[in-house]
Request: fold
Amino acid sequence: MSQFNRRGFMRTLLVTAVGAVPAQAAVSNKSVWPFFDSDLSSSTNLEHGPQQLRISPTGSPLAFQNFLRFDDQWKPATLANNPFISGDSFSLIISKIQREDSHIRCAGQGKAEGTDGKSLSYSWDSEISAVSPATDAPWFRFRTTLHLPAPVRLRQDTRIEPQIITWLSSSSTLMEGQSGSWRRVLLEQPTRNSLGTYGNDLPAVYLLDQNVGVETLMYFDVSEMSWMSTQNLPRFLVYRCTNISRIEKDGTQRLGIGLLANQATGNILPAGDVSFT
Reply:
């Protein structure tokens, strides 16, 4: 298979976010963990088995970073400052955050552009909970709800929004081209037939990255995201559960996975409660 023993991987499971399970054997010392720049003292943390989720503090944009416990130390399994929802219309500033047992609840304000071209303020709340569908597979479940008093005009000119992206790691473009991309296994959804037509099956994505010894899985509960339509982004007609690679200005290359869109059929997000789960 590779230089890694199959049971030697750190395993990360995500439910529109991140979770993790430790390996049963040692990870190779050639593993390169993602860069860590999250401040433990200022974040609100939620531990679930051998994993830890860190949420950004009040006054900052809603974001997270996930960690795995390895050799009695927390090792980052994602990059820092992953937004819950990606897009210019979803800058969610935290005004309140509270930890209760196996839950973290956040609330705050966001700003977007209304259909009249004027600035539109809205409130939002988010709940992160630790769930255990199996004893060896602890998950984190994220549910964020926007309370829109009026429709929002989405900004689809530069990058399509909204999307849900978890940025996992960063490397040089040289490393990525020579060996990095060859050492990963991706299972994306929905499936396609021989002519390239997509289905509407399991909304999930799996990535095994042997460069860092981490498995990542994300599942999206699209049944709660009833706002999807031809007015904005019609579910799996344009959305894909897959990976993304982006070259930054400093020449590094970011790797992420999530719920990604390849086009938009409209730019209106309806008024009311808009959920992302």
About this structure: Helices lie at 173-178, 235-238. The chain has one domain: 6-276. The first helix runs from residue 173 to 178. The radius of gyration is 19 Å.
